[in-house]
Amino acid sequence: MQDFELDARLAADTHPVTELPLCQLRLMDDARFPWLVLVPRRHGVSEVFELDNQDQHQLWREATELGRALLGALEGDKLNIASLGNMVAQLHAHVIVRRREDAAWPAPVWGHGQAEPYDPDGLADMRARILAELEGLDLDSGE
């Protein structure tokens, strides 16, 4: 089995946050939206159905539990979870906390305006908030 390697575009567009049981957790470099990216650490996988059943369950668990926690902590109005892969084939899931007053509401965030990269302080603050929310979650599959 080959080692996991992050797609270059995902690496360029996101910041690392932490490693979850299945996924590498990354923060999209667009401060307009609380936008996380989960990348399963599995080589050569581009579709959810290519994961075994346990990994499919774990991906959904990580996305929904993290999303639920952040929706409350960041006082969001809606949680968007999506896996598109049109630009980057490597399987990854977007977990985005949406607010009615955000720059793209109610439209999707993709292709809306120009990304606003995090400044160092904003990045550190968002990473700390995400990590604090992860402390209270049980993301192990239990299997």
TrEMBL record:
Its EC number is 2.1.1.-. The keyword Plastid does not apply. Keywords: Methyltransferase, Transferase. The lineage of its organism: Bacteria, Pseudomonadati, Pseudomonadota, Gammaproteobacteria, Oceanospirillales. This is HIT family protein. It comes from Halomonas aquatica. One of its GO terms (biological process) is methylation. Gene3D superfamilies: HIT-like. PROSITE patterns: HIT_2. It is an enzyme of class 2 (transferase). Residues 36-105 form the HIT domain. The keyword Methyltransferase applies. GO terms for molecular function: methyltransferase activity.
